[in-house]
Structure formats: C-alpha cells, structure tokens
Design goal:
- The chain is an alpha+beta fold.
- Helices cover 49% and strands 14% of the residues.
- The protein has two helices and four strands, in the order H-E-H-E-E-E.
- Strands 1-4 form a two-stranded parallel ribbon. The protein has a two-stranded antiparallel sheet with strand order 2-3.
- Strand 2 and strand 3 form a beta hairpin.
Length: 69
C-alpha cells in the first residue's frame, strides 16, 4: 500500500513538471508582432505618431515603438 502511494506521488509530480515545461515553451514562443493595426495600438493604450519618416509608429501602451500598418 505504501509503495502505491509513492508511485502515485511520483507520477503526479512528473505530470505537473511536464505541464510546467509545456507552459514555459508556450510563453517563450509568444512574440510581439512587427507591425500592428491602428486599432490594436489605440486599444492597448498607445497613440499613432505619424511624424516618423517611413511608417507611422505606435507610441506608448503595449506596442510602444512598433510600426503601424
């Protein structure tokens, strides 16, 4: 009976460790986009700066410094 509890604890620990690694891998692959839409910029607290030479840029908020498409 004691061995069954130990084995169950080992499997539970391994399962939880596996979930932790999967979550870390998913978080590592989440990358901010290179350019955002005007709506995404303003919805996330930014403003559109149209004075930049090539493309408008999002200033402030989540997407600060990203180009706006």
């Amino acid at each position: 009976m004691r061995i069954r509890r130990i084995i169950a604890a080992v499997f539970a620990t391994a399962a939880l460790a596996g979930l932790g690694l999967t979550g870390a891998a998913t978080a590592a692959t989440a990358v901010t986009p290179v350019s955002v839409t005007p709506g995404e910029c303003t919805d996330n607290g930014g403003t559109i700066d149209r004075t930049t030479p090539v493309l408008p840029t999002c200033r402030g908020g989540t997407y600060d410094g990203q180009s706006v498409d």
